[in-house]
UniProtKB/TrEMBL annotation:
One of its GO terms (molecular function) is threonine-type endopeptidase activity. PANTHER family: METALLOPROTEASE TLDD (PTHR32194), PROTEASOME SUBUNIT BETA (PTHR32194:SF8). This is Proteasome subunit beta. It catalyses: Cleavage of peptide bonds with very broad specificity. It holds the Pfam family Proteasome.
Length: 304
């Protein structure tokens, strides 16, 4: 007890009264505690502390300095052959360079990609959760989710945690039955559809390059070069962007390749049937001709 008094440590029962409102006896009774049994996407908010208020208190005046500024440049645009995604690879926290080879493109499934801008932890957590929901959608409905529906799912997740200190600006892009899709979703739940988006502190430089060379009828090689050039100029002008340029391409042929494979298998099967039928007919024709020749010989011998 003396150690508790000297150190200022509070007992668990006293902390529980501060953390849990009146009438609640356990952490799982909190409405904001993550529950795997619910259909809504939730996770446990730090108990007893407002997340956004806590982050605002971590400044020079409070005696603790935590640099929360992030820097990045991500770019995505649509054209007639699909969607191009180009990102830099530098991860920074203020003036601190955390990584030079960060992967800022998250594969949600074979037809959907998501980008990272803001807090890497927030982007990775929610986009991986989105990947799980897209997989469950496929299993429940026996068809894959559209780009618009996937972006709407992510937007609904963000709306439930608006004002809680999340930092995320993501682009959800891919291809579905309606063609190429590109959506912007941020931590406020904002959801926008467009043909071109760029996020991060270097987006103004990337926009300037892409706007000057963008065409709807570009070839895949031209689109690759335009995306690479946009991120390259942003990394040169923006101090918080850098590293290497990572480019991803979500092509239209990704969907067509499935039907093509099915058609190829069907054609192969049909050819095998035709070949077997041809062999069978040839055998019957050979037997028939052999019998005709045999009977002709017998008739000739009898006449002689």
């Amino acid at each position: 007890m003396a150690i508790f008094d000297v150190s200022g440590y509070k007992k668990y029962c006293e902390l529980r009264e501060q953390i849990l409102p009146a009438g609640l006896t356990h952490l799982v009774d909190r409405t904001n505690h993550y529950n795997f049994g619910t259909k809504t996407q939730e996770f446990a908010v730090p108990p007893g502390v407002d997340p956004s208020g806590f982050l605002k208190s971590c400044n020079h005046d409070g005696g603790v300095c935590i640099e929360m500024n992030h820097g990045t440049t991500t770019l995505a645009f649509k054209f007639k052959h699909g969607v191009i995604v180009a990102v830099d690879s530098r991860a920074s926290a203020g003036n601190y360079l955390a990584s030079k080879d960060a992967n800022k493109v998250i594969e949600i499934n074979s037809y959907l990609l998501g980008t990272m801008s803001g807090s890497a932890a927030d982007c990775q957590h929610w986009e991986r959760l989105l990947a799980k929901e897209c997989r469950l959608y496929r299993l429940r409905n026996n068809h894959r989710i559209s780009v618009a529906a996937a972006s709407k799912l992510l937007s609904n997740m963000m709306l439930g945690y608006r004002g809680m200190g999340l930092s995320m600006g993501s682009m959800i892009c891919g291809w579905d039955k309606q063609g190429p899709g590109l959506y912007y979703v941020d931590d406020n739940g904002t959801r926008l559809s467009g043909r071109m988006f760029s996020t991060g502190c270097g987006n103004s430089y990337a926009y300037g390059v892409v706007d000057s060379g963008y065409r709807e009828d570009m070839t895949v090689e031209e689109a690759y070069e335009l995306g690479r050039r946009g991120i390259t100029h942003a990394t040169h002008r923006d101090a918080y962007s850098g590293g290497v340029v990572n480019s991803e391409y979500t092509p239209r042929m990704t969907i067509l390749s499935i039907s093509f494979c099915l058609s190829a298998k069907f054609i192969t099967f049909f050819c095998m049937i035709c070949f077997n039928f041809y062999v069978f007919v040839s055998y019957l024709y050979f037997v028939f001709c052999s019998n005709i020749i045999h009977y002709a010989k017998l008739s000739l011998i009898q006449n002689l």
